[in-house]
Design goal:
The structure is a single chain. The termini are far apart. The protein has about 475 residues and is α/β, with parallel strands linked by helices. Strand 8, helix 13 and strand 9 form a beta-alpha-beta unit. The chain is elongated, with a radius of gyration of 27 Å. It has 17 helices and twelve strands.
C-alpha cells in the first residue's frame, strides 16, 4: 500500500471515530441530559472502542491478509453509523431501559472497526524493520491529526449546519463509499452493495423514527406545538421537554406555575407598572420578558440565550418583534453577566436549563457574586430551580445564595420547601429569590394566591433548617449533575 492511500485511510477512519463520539452526545442529550455523567460515559465508551479496535485489528492483521480487512471494517461501520439515529430514537421511545446498552453498542461497534484500520494499514506499510519507527510514528501522527480535524469539523461546522441524523447518515455513506474504493483496488471483499442498501434503509428509518424535530439547533431538538385551546398558545419543546409556553396574542397569560411564581415575586417587589432594567440568564420562549414588556411599559430586558437557534425560533415562530424592549443575545449567561456594568440592573432572572441538566457555572458563589455586582442596591435576583427526590441541588443552591445575599426566600409547594412533613415532597419547580433589601413576602404570598397557585414561601429559620448541612456551590466545587435528581 502506498503512503498516500495509507495516510488517507488512517486519517479518515480516525476522524470518523470522533464524529461518531460527538454526535452520539447530541443524540443522547434529549433522553439522558447533557450532564457530566453522560459526557463521561460516551467518552469512556469511545476510548474503549479505540483501545479494543486497535488491539483486535493488530492481532487479526497478523493472522490473515490485511487487505481483506479494510473494506469490511469501513463498510460495516458505515452501515451501523447510518442506522444509529433511528435505532437510538426508537429505543428511547419504546425501550428506554436498554437505551444506554444500545447506545454503547452503536459507539463501540463502529469505533472498534474504524480504530482497527490503523494497525491493519500499519501492517501493510511495514516492509522493513529499519522503518518501523518511521511508519508507526507517522501513521500514529496522521491518525491524531484526523481525530483533531473530526472533532473541530463536527463541533464548529457540521453541528451548526446539519441535523445530527444527516451527519451520521452522510458519514455512513462516505464510509461505505470508502469500502467500495478499497474493494475496487484490492478486488477483495464484495459486500459493499448490500451495505449501501443498509445505509439507504437507515436514512429511510430515520424519517419515520420518533423524536423528530421542527429544528435541530446547536444545542437542542426543538419543536413548537400549537395549543388547541388557545389560538395564540404555543409551547416550545426542547429535547422532548415542555420548556416554555407563550401566548403570542396575550403575553400576560401564564401557563406554567413556576412563571406565575416568578411574576408574583417580582410584582410584589416593585411598584405596579414601574419600568425595570432586567437581565435574563436563559431565554427559551421569552415568556417572562414578554410579560414585563406588556405590564411594565418601558422595561428594557437583555436576555443571554446561548442557543442562537432558539433565538431564531422566537423571531420566526413565536412572534417576537423588534422594538418590544427585549434584546436577545446569543451568548453564554456567565459571559453575558461579565459585560454588564456594576449596579446597572433592577432585576436579574435565572432560568437556564439544558434539557434535564443545569449549567453548573451559573449556580456558584462566584456567579451569584457577579449577579449581586450588576444589581443596584434595591435589586432582586429570582431564579427557577428544578429538582426531585432529596432536593440536594435545590438545597445547595439556596445555601449558595445565602452566602452572597442578605435576604433569601424560597417559593414552592409546601412539601418541597419544608413547610409540611418531607414525606409530602414530590419535587419539581421552585423559585428562589435573593436581595440585599427586604422583599414584601406578604404581598408576594397574596400575589401567589391571586394567581391560583398552592405555593408558599419559606424564609428565615425555616429556610435555614430546610437547607440543613448543604454545602454552597463554588467554581471549584459544583457537582450539580450529581446533586440534581431528574424526575
Amino acid at each position: 500500500m502506498g503512503p498516500r492511500v495509507a495516510a488517507a485511510l488512517v486519517f479518515g477512519s480516525s476522524a470518523a471515530v470522533l464524529v461518531v463520539e460527538i454526535v452520539a452526545l447530541r443524540l443522547l442529550a434529549p433522553y439522558l441530559g447533557l450532564t457530566l455523567e453522560t459526557s463521561t460515559t460516551v467518552i469512556g465508551i469511545a476510548l474503549t472502542a479505540i483501545a479494543f479496535g486497535s488491539w483486535l485489528g493488530g492481532r487479526i492483521a497478523d493472522q490473515v491478509d490485511p487487505r481483506r480487512l479494510i473494506g469490511p471494517s469501513l463498510g460495516v461501520s458505515g452501515a451501523v453509523v447510518a442506522f444509529t439515529p433511528a435505532v437510538l430514537r426508537m429505543t428511547a421511545e419504546w425501550a428506554p431501559a436498554i437505551l444506554l446498552l444500545i447506545a454503547s453498542l452503536t459507539i463501540l461497534v463502529p469505533g472498534a472497526l474504524l480504530s482497527a484500520v490503523t494497525p491493519i494499514v500499519t501492517k501493510l506499510r511495514l516492509t522493513s524493520l529499519a522503518e518501523t519507527g518511521t511508519v508507526v510514528g507517522g501513521l500514529s501522527g496522521v491518525g491524531t491529526v484526523g481525530a483533531i480535524v473530526g472533532t473541530v469539523l463536527t463541533g464548529f461546522v457540521l453541528v451548526s449546519r446539519l441535523p445530527v441524523s444527516g451527519i451520521l447518515i452522510g458519514l455512513g455513506a462516505l464510509l461505505v463509499v470508502g469500502a467500495a474504493l478499497v474493494e475496487w483496488r484490492t478486488r477483495g471483499w464484495s459486500g459493499t452493495p448490500a451495505l449501501a442498501l443498509v445505509v439507504v434503509a437507515g436514512g429511510l428509518a430515520t424519517t419515520v423514527a420518533p423524536g423528530r424535530c421542527d429544528t435541530e439547533t446547536k444545542y437542542h431538538c426543538a419543536r413548537v406545538v400549537a395549543d388547541p385551546d388557545r389560538d395564540g398558545g404555543r409551547t416550545l419543546v426542547l429535547d422532548g421537554l415542555r420548556h416554555s409556553y407563550v401566548d403570542v396574542d396575550d403575553p400576560t397569560f401564564l401557563d406554567f406555575e413556576y412563571v406565575r411564581g416568578i411574576v408574583s415575586v417580582v410584582d410584589a417587589a416593585f411598584p405596579e407598572g414601574e419600568p425595570l432594567v432586567a437581565h435574563h440568564l436563559g431565554g427559551g420562549g421569552l415568556t417572562f420578558p414578554r410579560y414585563l414588556a406588556a405590564t411594565r411599559p418601558g422595561t428594557r430586558s437583555l436576555v443571554s440565550e446561548i442557543d442562537s437557534g432558539v433565538v431564531r425560533i422566537n423571531r420566526d415562530r413565536l412572534g417576537l418583534r423588534s422594538g418590544a424592549g427585549i434584546d436577545v443575545r446569543a451568548e453564554d449567561g456567565r459571559l453575558g453577566l461579565r459585560r454588564l456594568d456594576d449596579g446597572s440592573r433592577d432585576l436579574v432572572v435565572g432560568d437556564a436549563f439544558g434539557g434535564v441538566s443545569v449549567p453548573w457555572h451559573l449556580t456558584t458563589v462566584e456567579a451569584m457574586t457577579d449577579v449581586r455586582r450588576v444589581l443596584d442596591e434595591d435589586g432582586l435576583y429570582v431564579a427557577n430551580l428544578i429538582d426531585h427526590g432529596a432536593l440536594a441541588f435545590a438545597r445547595a443552591e439556596a445555601a449558595t445564595l445565602d452566602e452572597v445575599f442578605e435576604h433569601v426566600a424560597l417559593v414552592g409547594e409546601p412539601g418541597d420547601i419544608g413547610l409540611v412533613p418531607s414525606s409530602a415532597s414530590g419535587g419539581g419547580n421552585m423559585v428562589v429569590l435573593a436581595s440585599d433589601r427586604p422583599v414584601d413576602l406578604r404581598a408576594a404570598q397574596k400575589a401567589l394566591d391571586a394567581r391560583q397557585t398552592s405555593w408558599r414561601i419559606a424564609t428565615g429559620d425555616g429556610l435555614t433548617s430546610w437547607i440543613g448541612d448543604a454545602r454552597p456551590l463554588t467554581d471549584d466545587y459544583a457537582p450539580v449533575d450529581q446533586l440534581l435528581q431528574p424526575q
